[in-house]
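User: For a reading group we're discussing how well predicted structures match intuition. Take Glycosyltransferase. Before you show the prediction, I'll give you the sequence so everyone sees exactly what went in.
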Amino acid sequence: MISSALPSPWIPTLLLLLLSLPIFFFFASHILPSPPPPISLPDELDDLTLFRRAAALESHPNHKPKSRLGSTNSKPKIAFLFLTNSDIQFAPLWEKFFNGSKSNRNLYTIYIHADPTVKTKFKSPGGVFSQDRLIPAKQTHRATATLISAERRLLANALLDDPSNAFFTLISQHCIPLHSFQFFYNTLFEASSHQVAEFRHLKYKSFIEIISKDPNLWDRYNARGKKMMLPEVPFDEFRVGSQFFTLTRRHALMVIQERRLWKKFMRPCLRSVACYPEEHYFPTFLSMEDPEGCSGYTLTNVNWTDSVNGHPYTYHPSELSPELIYKLRRSNFVQPYMFARKFTPDCLNPLMDMADDVIFRD
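Assistant: Thanks. Here is the predicted 3D structure of Glycosyltransferase, as structure tokens, for the group to look at:
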């Protein structure tokens, strides 16, 4: 007698699951964020060519500026490196900062790395922010080494452009100045105490935050996987710090020539929540190579109270007052803070109202 076996109750369920897989992957690819791509080989080779060219020209005894942004003069300059993925939100305030005195005009240069995938508008020639301040840029992604590349790209272009650039200050579109340009310049160069002809070899320190003790240090160190930083970067030499710095020319040159640690820091992270390569690479490298040449602190005030998703506290117009500016200037270190972040774009008008009587009155 032949018995007819009933189909297993699991078969319809399995068939349903198999039919659902294509739908699941379709929606997952549209809903779940895809990991950012690694730095491509062509981009890496482009940067390497740029860095080698800047290093070679730096060693040439007759290094002269190649663009109209630079000019030969007897005084050293500050190169301001704007890293942005939007317009310079506080451009009018920065215009006042740079143009506060006619004597300032030969004391600074400006370079802008604007993400090429984001549409930006810059003023026509004549203002301090214009198209001819833009350097050749590449796309950046948060929590990746592309931000290190962008900052090194800014340093290399500033080194190539003008041998008068003696300090290199990194700024974001969310930063504002807290003092006048002349106050900042005098702070860096101690202008009253010297007149320098060979300022390319000044023995000044870089202002960069270097932290060796942090509750998240171990997680940040292992963001690419355990032991992935070895042997080049032992844990006891790993450092973290603020993304924003002011480097001497000597340190800027060291950074663009560096290859050994870069091979580690350019690796993609497995845990993006602990991955902030631009806050790790520069403090670690300079701490390993020249700790005595660094102040150990930054000149940019960033408030990490009530931070959200790795972003610092953001100030809004209702919070702005002269008292806030004075508070943001105060530092526990030798020098006061010169800049601060992060501010919403609608802070511009109240900041402009305070510019002459508060911000630029030192």
